[in-house]
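Entry:
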Amino acid sequence: MYTVPPKKMLIINILEILKKYTDADHRLSQKEIADILAKNYNMEVDRKAVKRNLVNLAEFGYNIEATETSRVNKKGEKEVLCSDWYMEREFSDAELRLLVDGLLFSKHIPYSQCKTLIEKLEGLSNNYFKLKVKHISSLPENMPENKQLFYTIDILDEAISKGRQVEFSYNAFGTDKKLHNKITDEGKVRKYIINPYQMVATNGRYYLICNYDKYDSVDHYRVDKITDIKLLDTPVKPKTKLPDLADGHDLPQHMAEHIYMFSGQVDIVTFKAKKYLIDDIIDWFGKNVEFSQETKDEVTVRVKVNLQAMRYWALQYVQHVKVLSPAGLVKQIKQDIADASEKYK
């Protein structure tokens, strides 16, 4: 078997040391790098050889930094000394931590895949960052498994880019806590032919904004519940044929109007809310909400939103809000409250 000579490995080992042990807060001298080479790599080299390879790495384009100081040598010549070497990171620890936390808070990525992704993110930093997030490995394996998730995302990305339809099975959880295909009245696996337009992340999950080909409505499907996806040769239905997207697709507005990603009618809703709820209202509906008739304790709110989502939201905050219009929604919420009251008698 071919073996790379030790001298050829020197520059690779120095690069690995910089990746493992250095950042702007943790720097190494040439002697310290030489000591690590001797201890961990069984390579005896002098400081000049270390510096020469460090300079080469910088010239090759690696973000190698050092502290430079000037001095006059015995010959009376001015020379520059470099010390405190470190590798500058593309991601700060705070940025990596945000990415790691984003994975932890996601509700759709299976535990094993989440753990693998976190380990890859750890590899972008050094040993000091790994110490900060070592508790992550103790997370319980309580996430649902859909081993096709990343493949599904890849196919959807390709379909959206190429403007093509997809076919897939859609699933729901059973009491055995496993995903099961939705079936037709004849007992066969139901196949969905979908026009995909956009994928979005909200409430810790991925959703597909799309159109079920049989109808002209905008629908939402949980990506983690999609299996057996196929890219079709047929082109997607133009958005102009969908009433809700005919005037263009404003994604931020769409997300604000579909706070729980329900499909169905969108309309103007007015409701009265306690003023201490204003933070929550803006968090849920965005800054396009309109406030009026403000009193010491209450304010009237006007917002364009999916009616089914608003019904769900109003029941969630039933002690703090009162829906005023439209009349049909008010009637539904009254009935929901009456039904709930009856159950708890």
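The domain at 266-343 is CATH 3.30.70 (Alpha-Beta Plaits).
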